Amino acid sequence: MKKVFIAICCLSLTTIAAKAQDQKAPMQTAAPEKDADAGIFKFKDKENTHDYGTVPEGPTAEYDFEFKNVGKKPIIISEAHGSCGCTVPKWPHEPIAPGKKGTIHVTYNTDHRPGPISKEVTITSDAQEKSTVLHIRGTVTAKPADKVAPPPPGAPAPAPQGH
What we know:
Blueprint: H1 2-22, E1 41-43, E2 49-56, E3 60-69, E4 77-82, E5 87-90, E6 101-109, E7 115-125, E8 131-141
Parallel strand pairs: 2-8
Antiparallel strand pairs: 1-3, 3-6, 4-7, 5-6, 7-8
């Protein structure tokens, strides 16, 4: 009796394992086709990158990314956002007709941000490529440390520190 029970269990497990292998993987949906006539961004800088070089801490660093619509339909930019609050883009809200140029103005706030800059601005539009990423790079040099004013005449000298 035990042998019959073990044989039935083994047969059941084999059947279950075989069924599991027969199941088809879920169908993958194809990427949406691109509209061949849609607008196409062509940026002046092919890398979509601007390097500010070395800039001082405090003032804003600004750059205009110039582009041309080389597609057959107008481009409408629905959104542009920076990778953080210190990077603010301004973009044209009117359609950019085929053959016409536009500008995306990017402002980076350097105040209290010494060190390397590596930020992105993501553009969302109805162009052939629905999402385009612009990059800004550079280095912000720290402000010089404020000098401590000497004490007024007659004031006691400050106590030595560190002991």
